[in-house]
Design brief:
By secondary structure, the chain is of the alpha/beta class. It is built from ten helices and eight strands. The structure holds ligand PTJ. Ligand PTJ binds next to helix 2 and helix 4.
C-alpha cells in the first residue's frame, strides 16, 4: 500500500498517514473536509512535539480502565479513523468483546456502505494475522474474537437525543444503548449530546481547545494511531479502576502547557 515510503524517512509516520488518507479519499471513504481536519490535527501534533505526553499517557490509562469497567462499551468510527486505524480499532473491539459502530458526521448511504465494507475486509485480515502480544488464548480464540465483533451503523434505528438531521442517526444496539463510547475525532455537538444522554464519552483529539475536547468525559490529547498502539496492550494487560475524581480540565491545561513550553 505505502511500500514506496521508506521507514527510515524522518517523516515516515506523517507521510504514511497522508497516503492512507488520500487513498481512502479516492476510495470514497472520507468526508470532503477530512483532509482539512487531518491538517489541523497535524498542526497541533507539531506543537505537542509529535509524542505522547505524560498527561496523554494518564488519559489513555483512564480510558482503558473505563472501557474495561463498562457494562456496554462501543467503539465509534468515522471516515478518518477507518482510513488510519481500522486494524487497531478491530483489535481493541476484539479484546473488549464489543461492537464497532460506523457513525459519521457527513452521512451518506454511499460512505456508510463503503466504510462497512472496508471494515469487513480488514476484519478478515486481522483474523488471519497473528494475535497481538499479550493475547494468551491462542490463534483460534483470536480468530473467534475478531469474527465476533459486530459491525454496526447501517440500520440507523436509533437517534442521539438533542441533535437534528442525519448526524443524530445511530444504532440501537450500539451507541444508543452504550454506557461508554470511545470515539476518536468526534464532533463537538454530538459529544455534548452524548454526554447529556448520560454516556461516558472517551475522545481522542489533538486540539485541546476544541468543544469536543472540553465536553468529553476523558480527552486523550494525542494522535490517534499513537494512542491505539498504547491502548491495545493496556486493554490486554487489564487496568485499574476508573478514577471517580477524574479531572479532565487538568488534562487539557497540561496539554496547553506542553504546547507553550515546546514553543518557548
Ligand atoms: O467521517 P465523518 O463524516 O464523521 O467526518 C470526519 C471529520 C474529521 C471530517 C469531521 O468529524 C470533522 O470535520 O472534524 P473536525 O471538526 O475538523 O475535528 C477534527 C478534530 O480531530 C480536530 O480537532 C483535529 O485536531 C483532530 N484530529 C485530526 N486528526 C487527528 C486528530 N486527533 C487525533 N488524531 C488524529 N489523527
Amino acid at each position: 500500500m505505502a511500500d514506496d515510503i521508506p521507514e527510515s524517512h524522518p517523516r515516515y509516520r506523517s507521510l504514511l498517514a497522508r497516503r492512507l488518507l488520500t487513498e481512502a479519499a479516492a476510495d470514497g471513504l472520507l468526508a470532503e473536509s477530512a483532509l482539512i481536519a487531518h491538517g489541523r490535527g497535524e498542526a497541533f501534533d507539531y506543537l505537542l512535539g509529535e509524542r505522547t505526553t505524560a498527561s496523554a499517557h494518564r488519559a489513555i490509562g483512564e480510558a482503558t480502565a473505563r472501557l474495561l469497567a463498562a457494562g456496554s462499551p462501543v467503539l465509534s468510527v468515522n471516515g478518518n479513523t477507518v482510513a488510519l486505524a481500522a486494524d487497531q480499532m478491530l483489535g481493541c473491539a476484539a479484546v473488549l468483546g464489543c461492537p464497532i459502530e460506523v457513525n459519521i458526521y457527513y452521512r451518506t448511504p454511499e460512505r456508510m456502505s463503503a466504510l462497512l465494507v472496508r471494515l469487513a475486509e480488514r476484519k478478515l485480515a486481522v483474523m488471519r494475522a497473528d494475535p497481538p502480544d499479550g493475547w494468551a488464548e491462542g490463534s483460534e480464540a483470536w480468530q473467534a474474537a475478531v469474527l465476533a465483533v459486530p459491525l454496526l451503523g447501517d440500520a440507523a434505528d436509533g437517534r442521539i437525543p438533542g441533535l437534528d438531521g442525519p448526524r443524530a442517526a445511530c444504532s440501537r444496539d450500539g451507541i444508543m444503548q452504550a454506557d461508554v463510547i470511545f470515539v476518536p475525532l468526534e464532533d463537538g455537538d454530538r459529544c455534548e449530546a452524548l454526554i447529556a444522554a448520560g454516556k461516558q464519552v472517551l475522545v481522542v483529539d489533538l486540539n485541546p481547545l476544541s468543544r469536543t475536547a472540553r465536553a468529553a468525559t476523558v480527552t486523550i490529547v494525542d494522535e490517534l494511531t499513537r494512542v491505539l498502539e498504547e491502548l491495545l496492550p493496556l486493554l490486554l494487560a487489564g487496568a485499574g479502576s476508573p478514577d471517580m475524581e477524574w479531572d479532565n480540565d487538568a488534562i487539557l491545561l497540561d496539554a496547553l502547557d506542553e504546547i507553550r513550553s515546546g514553543a518557548a
